[in-house]
Design brief:
The complex is a heterotrimer of chains A (about 425), B (about 425) and C (about 400).
Chain A lengths: L1 E8 L3 E7 L5 E8 L4 H24 L8 H34 L2 H4 L2 H22 L11 H20 L3 H16 L7 H15 L10 H10 L3 E9 L15 H12 L3 E7 L4 E6 L5 E6 L8 H11 L3 H9 L12 H13 L4 H23 L5 E5 L6 H15 L4 E2 L7 H15 L1
Parallel strand pairs in A: 1-4, 5-8, 8-9
Antiparallel strand pairs in A: 1-2, 2-3, 5-6, 6-7
Helix pairs in contact in A: 1-8, 2-4, 2-6, 2-7, 4-5, 5-6, 9-15, 10-12, 11-13, 13-14
Chain B lengths: L17 H18 L7 E5 L6 H6 L2 E4 L1 H10 L3 H10 L8 H11 L15 E6 L4 H13 L2 E6 L10 H23 L5 H23 L12 H11 L6 H19 L5 E2 L2 E2 L5 E6 L7 H9 L3 E6 L19 H11 L6 H14 L4 E7 L3 H4 L2 H12 L3 E6 L9 H24 L1
Helix pairs in contact in B: 1-9, 1-10, 3-5, 4-5, 7-12, 8-9, 8-10, 11-16, 13-15
Chain C lengths: L8 H13 L4 H9 L4 E5 L6 H6 L2 E5 L23 H10 L8 E5 L3 H13 L4 E5 L7 H23 L5 H27 L6 H10 L5 H16 L9 E6 L8 H9 L2 E5 L19 H11 L17 H9 L4 E7 L3 H16 L4 E6 L7 H19 L1
Parallel strand pairs in C: 1-2, 1-3, 3-4, 5-6, 5-7, 7-8
Helix pairs in contact in C: 1-8, 6-11, 7-9, 8-10, 10-14
Classes of the chains: A alpha/beta (about 425), B alpha/beta (about 425), C alpha/beta (about 400).
């Protein structure tokens, strides 16, 4: 079948959306952005194709229809096992790369002990892997870099101690290797991985699909459907040189506007607060951009600002919003300057202000800046869609609702759980239009 | 998958047409004249581009040295960054105008001009206080270093959108009672009003041709880029050549060259040769960035964007609404010239002008290059944008750079916004076609 | 509140603080509503011919930005990040309707930003008056003077257009007299503070001046008189503070906390450039002859020096600061300049050089009207105060 892919190369994550001829989203994929943008784009689009396969499986097996709960369980198990297979493969690659590192001069002196220690770390990683992908397991991140990194660090210390090799050399070998591994384009035959995952599922629970007809055949048949990449459109922040030729690039503003329009056709104003920029976009009833404004050179008040605050407070980024929600007396914070954020915070804490009040004030300050950018782009006239990482922050959303109401009255505010894919969605539609119209 | 890497373009020597080469010769000749002014017994007056009284200075045999032009030249030669930092090292704030800091930094580093030769200390600072508050502080700072005669020549601001009798009277009186006597004293040359009339006659002639060149952009395709190319075109007349035969020759030559391009249906010449198909016609408000001038221009011509009118080319004189230097009323006409300078016009006038340009030159929209250094231009530009957009119904865009501080040019940021803007224009057109 | 015979300084300052924090300008609204036909005309720092508004039967209303309590939302939409704060908050005051009762605004020629704001006002509020007051930088009577008289004349016509009544010379002279009185009183406050800084805290002085921006001058005269009396009759504890002159606050206002922080850090401010319009002329403006010429002559020959004003004589550059230090027995100068302020920040190196030549200690920092962080200011001012003592002790 013909598919159209949109890729949004962001400063922290790369997103891909796979669209079919009917403008239906088949799959979504996300990965961490990395130094090799080409690889990031390939990984994200492969992830979208994997997700797309599951969509096709669900369709083929009528998973959504009543009476097919077992199919749902089966597909859940299939996905977990697929991820496990994928993880183990990447682990192999990582180990091999680490071992390769040992040949370099830097590690020559301790190579022998190091090799044993490494092999022990990877043995442990492999042993615990199925647990990571067990039903209900809680993973902080799905990116290989994050999982492998945190688990490697967890094991390396103990192993290094036992083996009597310097801990930091072990970490050093990892750091060098992970960059190499994650910048390698994804390899291996996807269908083969699905088959291995399927085998694992049935090995573990041979009766899982009893009573369902022809599941194995349907899976096999579906794997036979080629997901032809008919056209691709990439977008992303201008600072990166997108690894696409010119006719395959659309501006992120246009993609964002169109993506928001596809999610909510009545949207006229889109606010996106990302890591490094804030955008206010006005669109018409067809999703065509009428006006846009972005924060100026100064990145004050963007998502990254919250990141600094989280670091400064020694908290996780996702913990900021909930703490801010506990405030009854938000502090008045006038500067959203990222450079001075830490100093201002310490100053206020030393004056006895409460953490939640300061945080509530910070959230308000960010949203105030965003409202200014919206005002600059032409204000709010109709439905409003909020996207970007900060849209997931409840304290920010609360301030936004308040300020929009104060300044523009009652407007519908849309926040989509998949808002991170807004740009990629718009890009995929541009890809579809390039061929279909 | 269709992932293709873009080839890296290799830099080539900039392609120039004959007028550009001629212009460059003129600028170089002027710097050589300045550098050898002392040997040749010539005296030097430093003054500013907006509201410069070049014809008057010529009456006293004074050679004109324009610090903004020096800053521009240093920007183009990538020396301004170091000069700006030098000035900041000496206590100048990072917040203020980089023209000033580039100039002060250049002085601190020996005042070596763009031609590698030392610039002479000025004998007089003619503070033409026109359209920019910073000029005043700038020359107070220079006065402290040079300790020479400083003449304040105040141009009232056109706050109500009109030139009043009292404004002209104030300026003419300043010229008669203050500026001219002081220039006589410094130069030792007696003022001869007929000499001034002669120069003004020449100015008007060159001004006619300049206007014809700038208005040639009404053609489709436009034979010129009225911003990036325009900067070359305004050089002589905004600088030391207004009122000279050299300027008359240059502008006649330029006009013929441009008219030939119109006959051939050609677009502008860019540093990479003739521009490809004209896809977007823009009006630009605000000065350019000089530290990355070519890179900045390329972002336009690579996309087929041509600037058909700009406000910056009116910063040293606005001629396209009919004003010409007038030998019959020499001092009054100098006053009127100063008053008409673009940054001396109030915001409603600027909005009218830009609206008019968008309509008259059939532009796709207004692009504002907001310059961090230049509050005279920049303060209020976001409102200007809103107004022009509202009145013309054409989309506008906003980018931010600086004149000569390389730290304020973020290529990726500018390119991102420009491309978004061009695509937005394209998308709207497609939408309009579909409707 | 002033009908009580013996107001204390704290009563008066409490009233000033209410006026200062009231960005709805209740007192001015009330004044306008008291009599039909009254006009209110706003003006921005640092100087405006308030006498003319007064003579037109109007209330000159000082619009000095939004301070640190106003949340600027729409004002920010009009300005890039490298432009100072005062025009943003002023626009915010305008678009939020807080100035809906103001008939016209005067924008003196401080800098390009405020100059351009005059045109923005015309575009944004076409039904309101907006007048740019072009101040002369030539100080000859028959050049800059004549020009300024013509500017003042046009300002009169503009005011007459709003009030619908002609402004007579006698009315202008009467207004000059009232403002002369106001300036005399303010000068007295300054003299008292220089003599007994412990009895006139600068945060109080500042609030007293600010109050005068939003109430009728006659009321303010009473208020200042009462304050002077109360301040003279009390004795507050004397501290071992250093005496400083503050320079740079001529346009965008320092947060009140900044003034307090300087004082808390161990400094007595003995002279400053807060709200210069209250004492722009150094002595009484003449009541003889043509009143516009009197105002013009006072501007040209008898007014304060400040960064936005041209100094024609290089030899005199910055000496006003040295004079102030001498006259007020100050031990140093604190440059508190507004971020992104062209006139202030371009002037600063010149002033610093003059002070250096005269061996006057100095420090410099920047602020914005909404600066929230005072810790660095306290630290710098405190260190400065201590080091001044060390120097003078040595």
């Amino acid at each position: 079948m013909r598919t159209f892919i949109g890729i949004d190369l962001g400063s922290t994550t790369t997103k891909a959306v796979l669209l079919d001829e009917n403008r239906d989203v088949i799959g979504r994929g996300i990965t961490n952005s990395r130094s090799n943008y080409g690889t990031a784009a390939r990984v994200a689009s492969e992830e979208a194709r994997i997700d797309g396969r599951f969509t096709l499986f669900r369709r083929a097996l009528h998973a959504a229809d009543p009476g097919h709960e077992r199919v749902q369980d089966f597909l859940g198990a299939l996905e977990r096992n697929f991820r496990l297979v994928q993880f183990l493969e990447q682990l192999d690659d990582l180990e091999e790369t680490c071992n390769g590192q040992l040949r370099s001069e830097r590690f020559a002196a301790v190579a022998g002990g190091l090799r044993e220690a490494l092999s022990e770390v990877f043995r442990r990683l492999r042993a615990e892997a199925p647990e990571l992908y067990a039903p209900g397991a809680n993973r902080k991140s799905d990116f290989f870099r994050d999982i492998a990194g945190s688990r490697f660090h967890a094991h390396a210390e103990a192993v290094a101690k036992d083996a009597g090799v310097p801990h930091d050399i072990l970490l050093n070998a990892y750091d060098k290797s992970i960059i190499e591994v994650e910048n390698r384009p994804p390899g291996g035959d996807l269908s083969e991985k699905f088959r291995r995952a399927m085998a694992r599922v049935l090995e573990h629970d041979p009766h899982l699909i009893d009573g369902e007809k022809d599941v194995a055949q349907e899976i096999e048949r579906t794997l036979g459907v080629e997901l032809e990449e008919t056209y691709l459109v990439g977008t992303g922040y201008g600072r990166v040189t997108l690894p696409f030729s010119k006719e395959h690039i659309r501006s992120e503003i246009l993609c964002h506007g169109l993506g928001a329009h596809m999610m909510y056709p009545k949207t006229r104003t889109v606010l996106d607060i990302g890591g490094q920029d804030t955008k206010g976009i006005q669109i018409d009833d067809k999703g065509i951009v009428e006006n846009f404004q972005m924060n100026d050179r100064c990145a004050a008040g963007c998502g990254r600002y919250l990141g600094y605050i989280a670091d400064e407070m020694n908290m996780g980024l996702h913990e900021l919003g909930p703490l801010a929600m506990q405030s009854n007396r938000p502090a008045r914070i006038n500067s959203t300057c990222t450079v001075f954020a830490g100093a201002e915070l310490r100053d206020r804490l030393s004056l006895g202000e409460k953490r939640e009040d300061i945080l509530a004030g910070l959230h308000r300050a960010i949203i105030l800046r965003a409202i200014s950018i919206i005002s600059r782009s032409g204000g709010v006239t109709n439905e409003f869609t909020f996207t970007g990482g900060v849209a997931k922050n409840e304290a920010a959303v609360r301030e936004l609702r308040k300020l929009l109401k104060e300044n523009y009255g009652d407007v519908t505010i849309n926040i989509n759980p998949d808002s991170i894919y807004t740009g990629a969605l718009g890009a995929s539609e541009f890809a579809r239009r390039a061929v279909m119209s | 998958m269709t992932v293709i890497s873009r080839p890296k373009a290799k830099p080539a020597d900039a392609i120039k047409d004959a007028s550009m080469a001629k212009q460059k010769e003129m600028v170089n000749a002027h710097y050589d004249r300045l550098a050898s002014a002392r040997e040749n017994g010539e005296k030097v007056a430093a003054t500013f581009v907006p509201g410069n009284l070049n014809e008057l200075l010529m009456c006293f045999d004074l050679v004109n040295n324009l610090p903004e032009v020096n800053a521009i030249q240093n920007g183009l030669r990538r020396q301004s960054g170091a000069f700006v930092m030098e000035a900041e090292k000496h206590g100048h704030s990072e917040d203020v105008c980089t023209y000033v800091k580039s100039d002060i930094g250049m002085m601190a580093k020996g005042n070596i001009g763009p031609n590698g030769k030392k610039l002479p200390d000025p004998d007089v600072l003619l503070l033409s206080y026109t359209g920019c508050f910073t000029f005043m502080k700038w020359f107070e700072l220079l006065r402290k270093e040079y300790n020479c005669e400083t003449i304040m020549f105040q141009t009232p601001y056109m706050a109500d959108g009109k030139i009043t009798k009292d404004m002209i009277a104030y300026m003419v009186k300043q010229l008669k009672q203050d500026v001219i006597p002081k220039l006589e004293r410094v130069s030792g040359v007696k003022f001869d009003i007929d000499r001034l009339r002669e120069y003004l006659k020449k100015s008007a002639k060159a001004e006619d041709d300049l206007v014809a060149v700038l208005q040639s952009a009404k053609n489709k395709p436009s034979p010129i880029d009225a911003y990036f190319g325009g900067i070359y075109y305004i050089g002589p007349i905004f600088g030391a050549f207004r009122g000279t035969d050299a300027a008359i020759d240059y502008y006649r030559f330029l006009r013929e060259e441009v008219e030939e391009r119109v006959r051939q249906g050609k677009g502008p010449v860019t540093p990479d040769g003739d521009m490809g198909k004209e896809r977007y016609r823009l009006v630009v408000e605000g000065p350019p960035n000089y530290t990355n001038f070519r890179q900045f221009w390329k972002m336009f011509y690579d996309e087929g964007a041509v600037v058909v009118a700009s406000s910056y080319t009116k910063v040293g004189g606005t001629y396209d609404f009919g004003f010409r230097h007038n030998p019959d009323e020499p001092l009054e006409s100098l006053a009127e010239y100063c008053l008409n300078v673009y940054t001396n016009r109030n915001l409603p006038m600027r909005v009218d002008m830009l609206e008019n340009y968008v309509n008259e030159y059939e532009a796709d929209g207004l692009l504002i290059n907001s310059i961090k250094s230049c509050n005279s231009f920049s303060a209020g530009q976001l409102l200007i944008m809103r107004e022009v957009e509202k009145r013309t119904g054409k989309p506008a865009a906003f980018i931010e750079t600086d004149l000569v501080d390389p730290r304020y040019f973020s290529a990726a940021n500018v390119k991102n916004r420009l491309e978004s803007y061009f695509q937005m224009v394209e998308q709207k057109r497609a939408g309009a076609r579909a409707a | 509140m002033l009908d009580k015979p013996n107001s204390t300084t704290s009563d008066i300052i409490k009233r000033c603080e209410e006026l200062f924090t009231d960005l709805y300008f209740t007192r001015a609204r009330e004044w306008k509503a008291e009599k039909p036909g009254r006009i209110v005309v706003g003006f921005m720092p640092y100087y405006a011919p308030r006498e003319l508004v007064h003579a037109a039967g109007g209330l000159p209303l000082g619009i000095f930005g939004g301070g640190d309590q106003l949340e600027v939302i729409h004002g920010d939409a009009y300005y890039q990040s490298y432009i100072c704060r005062i025009p943003r908050s002023t626009v915010e005051l305008g678009v939020s309707g807080r100035l809906d009762f103001v008939d016209g605004m005067m924008f003196p020629s401080i800098c390009d930003v405020i100059r351009n704001l005059s045109g923005m006002w015309k575009l944004m509020f076409p039904n309101k008056g907006a007048r740019y007051i072009d101040l002369p930088h030539n100080f000859e009577d028959d050049l800059g003077g004549e020009f300024y008289v013509s500017e003042l004349k046009e300002t009169c016509h503009w005011l007459e257009g709003m009030s619908g009544k002609p402004i007579t010379d006698d009315a202008i002279r009467a207004s000059i007299a009232v403002f002369n009185e106001n300036r005399r009183l303010i000068r007295e406050v300054y003299e008292l503070r220089a003599a007994q800084p412990w009895n006139v805290p600068s945060s109080e002085l500042y609030l007293l001046l600010r109050a005068g921006m939003v109430i009728p001058v006659e009321e303010h005269n009473e208020m200042v008189r009462a304050y002077l009396e109360a301040a003279r009759n009390q004795q507050r504890p004397i501290k071992d503070n250093s005496r400083v002159v503050v320079c740079g606050a001529f346009c965008e206002q320092p947060p009140l906390n900044l003034i307090k922080s300087i004082e808390l850090a161990g400094c007595y401010i003995v002279d400053d450039d807060f709200i210069l319009v209250t004492r722009w002329e150094n002595s009484d403006v003449s009541l003889e002859g043509d009143p516009l010429t009197s105002l013009s002559r006072a501007y040209l020959h008898d007014s304060k020096s400040t960064p936005p004003k041209y100094e024609p004589d290089e030899a005199k550059k910055g000496l006003y600061l040295v004079d102030s230090v001498r006259k007020n027995r100050a031990e140093g100068v604190i440059f508190a300049m507004t971020s992104f302020c062209d006139p202030g920040l371009l002037e600063r190196p010149m002033l610093q050089a003059v002070l250096k030549k005269h061996d006057i200690p100095q420090i410099a920092f920047k602020y914005a009207e909404n600066s929230g962080q005072m810790q660095p200011i306290r630290e710098q001012a405190g260190t400065f105060a201590d080091s001044i003592k060390l120097w003078s002790g040595a």
